[in-house]
Automatic annotation (TrEMBL), chains A, B:
GO molecular function, one term: L-serine-pyruvate transaminase activity
Top-level taxon in the UniProt lineage: Bacteria
Key word Repeat present: no
Keywords of this entry: Pyridoxal phosphate
Similarity comment text for this entry: Belongs to the class-V pyridoxal-phosphate-dependent aminotransferase family.
Lineage of source species: Bacteria, Bacillati, Actinomycetota, Actinomycetota incertae sedis, Candidatus Hakubellales
Species this protein is from: Candidatus Hakubella thermalkaliphila
Protein name (Swiss-Prot/TrEMBL): Aminotransferase class V domain-containing protein
Length: 383, 383
C-alpha cells in the first residue's frame, strides 16, 4: 500500500467533501435547485476576486478563459502588450497572435519577475496600446508579478490590464476593483481545490466597454451571452454547465469562506516559505531569483542529476506527484506545488521523500535537513 | 421524502458507479495514471462513433464542440448549408454566421424532419458549398434526421457533412465512417449518462484536409493541437482536461460496452415507442408529425393547459424533472426525455405521475391509461 500525494501546481488534491459533492444526484441546469448553486458560486467568486462587478463562468480549462479575454475585448489588428515571465505568458501571446492582435511581447529571463517600469516605457512608445496581458503566478517558474504595481501603470492611461491568475488567485492577494484590474481569469483546479473543468473571469466596467466595441467573433466564450443568461429572472448559464463540478466547486468555496481569504493567503505564504527554507537547508538552489509566488517553488536539481529522474522516483517510490520543467526547462528544474488543499505536514513529508530520493540517486544530502528547515519556519510562525 | 427523477433530454440521470467515480482521488493529467484513462476513452469513443479516424476531446459543453467544427474546417466567407429542424439547428446557423460563414439555411417547420431532396437541390444551385451542418436529434422538438440519407447527398459531391449528435449519439444508430459523416460532435451528458462538461468530436480524413486549409483563428478548439498532444509518446490533452469527469466518463463507457451499442439503441427505441404509445393512450397528442427520435418525446399539452404548468407540477409534486418548450415553443409543448440511464419502470412512473398531474389540473384523463399503453409495448417487445 502506498498513499498518493499530489504536490503539483495544479490540478491539486481535492478534499473528500468536495470529491463527494460531485457524486450527488444530477440536477438539471434549468431547474431551481441549480439556480441556487449558480447564485451562491457567483457571489462567492465576487468576494474571491475582490470585485463588485460581473463574474462569468465557463465549462473549460483556464486556457479557455484566457481565450475568452482576447476574443471579448479586442478586434483584429489591435495593439496589445503581453508580459511573459514563463510558459503561460508565452501562451497568452500565442492566443493573442492567433486571433490577429498586434502583440508587443515583454519577455523576462525565466526565473525573474516583470518590471512595471518597462511597461511604462513600452506604453509611452506605443500610446495606441489597448490592453496589457500579464500572468499573476506563472507556474512554469514559480514567479509572481506585482499586479498592483502594473495596475498603477495601466489604469491612468486607460489601458486594460488582463490577468491570468489561474494559479495565483487564492494563494496570493488579488483585488480586482481596488487594483484596477480589468479581466482576471482563473480556474477551479488550483488554490480552489476542485477538479479541473471550471474557469471563470471577473470583468471590470472598462472591460465591458471594450466588449461593446470588440469585433472578434465569439459564441461559446461570449461574456454578453453569459451576462444575459445570468440576468434572466432565474439566473442561468448560456450553455449546459458542468453541473457536478459546480456543485463541488460551491462546497470548496464554502471551505474558502470558512478559512477566510486572508488566512488562506497566509497559509499559502507560510507553506511556500517553509518549502523554500527546507530546500535551501538541504543544499538545493531555487530556480527563481526573485518574485517567488506562494503556489509553487521551482528548484534546480543537484549538479548532474536530471530533474525528470527526481520527479519519476518521487512518484514511483513514494507516491508523490511533483512536476518537472515545461518546454525549454524540461529536465532542468523540478517544481513542488503547495497550492490548494495542502497543510504543513504535506510539505514535511514531501521534503522527507525528496531527501530519500536524492540519497538514492547518489546525491550527498543530510537526511532530515530539509525537514528541519521547514519545521523551523513553522515553529517560528507560531511563536 | 420524495425521490428525484431526471426525465429530461439532458443532463440525464447518472448511475451511482459513475457518480462515485468522480469522487476518486484526483490524478494529474500529465501522469501515467491519466494516460490510461485517456487512451481507453479515446478507443471507446471511436467504437461509439463508428470510426477508425481521430477523436478529439474537449472540456466544454456540446456547444463548444459545435463551435470547434466551424472554426477548424472553414474560413470567413465560405458558403455552408445549415439544416434546421429546431432550436439546435438554429444554434448551428448562429455559430456559423458569428464566424463569418455565408449561411444558406434550410429550415423546416418545427416537428418535421429534413428532406434530403431539398439538400440535393440546394447543393445543385450552390455548387460552391463547402459544408452542410445538420442536427441528428434536435431535442427541442424530438425530431431525428436520417443522417445516412444526407451522407449520400453530400459524399459524392465532396461536401463535408457536420453533425450535431449531442443527443442522438448512443440513442440511435450512427456510423461516422460507413455513412460518410465528416465531423460528429457529441457530449457526455446525454445517452452517455455522465455529468455535463465533456464534449468530443470524431473527424474524417476529408475534414482533416479542410482543417489544413481553414483560416479561422483557433486555440482552445484546435483539432490540430488535440491531435498533436494525443500523438505524443505519452498521449495527453493540450490543456488541462476535466479529469474527474473523464474518469467517470470512462466508467460510463464501460457500461455502454457491457450493454452493447446495438442493445443500447434498441433499449432507447423501445423506451421511446412505449412513451409515445402511453401518451397517445392517455389521449395526448405528440408534437412531432414524423421523424421521432429515440431520446425525447415532445407532447402537446391538453387544450387550455400551459405546458410550463405541467412541468412545474411534475417537479414539485412528484420530483420528476421533465422539460418545457424552448424559444418559440415555450409553454406550447412539454418534453419527456428517455435518454441515458433510463429503464422501463422510469417510463411507467413518469406517465403515472403525468396522469395524476393532468387530473389535478382538471384535465379529464383515465388513470392508468398511459401506464397501460406503455406496458402493452413492453410486454409485446418481450414476445
Amino acid at each position: 500500500m502506498q498513499k498518493k500525494y499530489l504536490m503539483t501546481p495544479g490540478p491539486t488534491s481535492v478534499p473528500t467533501d468536495v470529491l463527494l459533492a460531485q457524486a450527488r444526484d444530477m440536477i438539471h441546469h434549468r431547474a431551481p435547485a441549480y439556480t441556487e448553486v449558480l447564485r451562491e458560486i457567483t457571489a462567492r467568486l465576487k468576494k474571491v476576486l475582490g470585485t463588485e462587478g460581473d463574474v462569468v463562468i465557463f465549462g473549460s480549462s483556464g486556457t479557455g478563459a484566457m481565450e475568452s479575454s482576447v476574443v471579448n475585448l479586442f478586434s483584429p489588428g489591435d495593439k496589445v502588450v503581453v508580459i511573459s515571465v514563463g510558459y503561460f505568458g508565452d501562451r497568452y501571446a500565442a492566443i493573442a497572435e492567433e486571433f490577429g492582435l498586434q502583440v508587443i511581447k515583454l519577455s523576462y529571463p525565466r526565473g525573474s519577475p516583470a518590471d512595471p517600469l518597462d511597461l511604462e516605457k513600452t506604453l509611452e512608445s506605443h500610446p495606441e496600446t489597448k490592453g496589457v496581458f500579464i500572468t499573476h503566478l506563472d507556474t512554469s517558474t514559480g514567479v509572481e508579478n506585482d499586479l498592483e504595481a502594473f495596475g498603477q501603470v495601466t489604469n491612468p492611461r486607460n489601458v486594460a490590464l488582463i490577468v491570468d491568475s489561474i494559479s495565483g488567485l487564492g494563494s496570493s492577494p488579488l483585488y480586482l476593483d481596488a487594483w484596477n484590474l480589468d479581466v482576471v481569469v482563473s480556474g477551479s483546479q488550483k488554490a480552489f481545490m476542485t477538479p479541473p473543468g471550471i474557469a471563470f473571469a471577473g470583468i471590470s466596467s472598462r472591460a465591458w466597454n471594450m466588449v461593446e466595441r470588440s469585433r472578434l467573433p465569439k459564441f461559446y466564450w461570449s461574456y454578453q451571452k453569459s451576462k444575459d443568461a445570468y440576468n434572466k429572472p432565474i439566473p442561468q448559464n448560456p450553455f449546459t454547465p458542468p453541473v457536478s463540478l459546480l456543485v463541488a466547486f460551491n462546497e470548496a468555496l464554502k471551505m474558502v469562506e470558512k478559512e477566510g481569504l486572508e488566512n488562506m493567503w497566509s497559509r499559502h505564504r507560510l507553506l511556500a516559505e517553509a518549502t523554500r527554507a527546507g530546500l535551501r537547508a538541504m543544499g538545493l538552489k531555487l530556480f527563481a531569483t526573485g518574485g517567488w509566488g506562494n503556489g509553487v517553488t521551482s528548484v534546480l536539481p543537484p549538479e548532474g542529476v536530471d530533474g525528470g529522474k527526481i520527479v519519476r522516483m518521487m512518484r514511483e517510490e513514494f507516491g508523490i506527484t511533483i512536476a518537472g520543467g515545461q518546454g525549454d526547462l524540461k529536465g532542468k528544474i523540478f517544481r513542488i506545488g503547495h497550492l490548494g488543499y495542502v497543510d504543513r505536514l504535506d510539505i514535511i513529508l514531501t521534503l522527507a521523500a525528496l531527501e530519500m530520493t536524492l540519497a538514492r540517486l547518489g546525491v550527498e544530502v543530510e537526511l532530515g535537513s530539509g525537514v528541519r528547515g521547514t519545521q523551523e519556519v513553522f515553529l517560528k510562525a507560531e511563536g
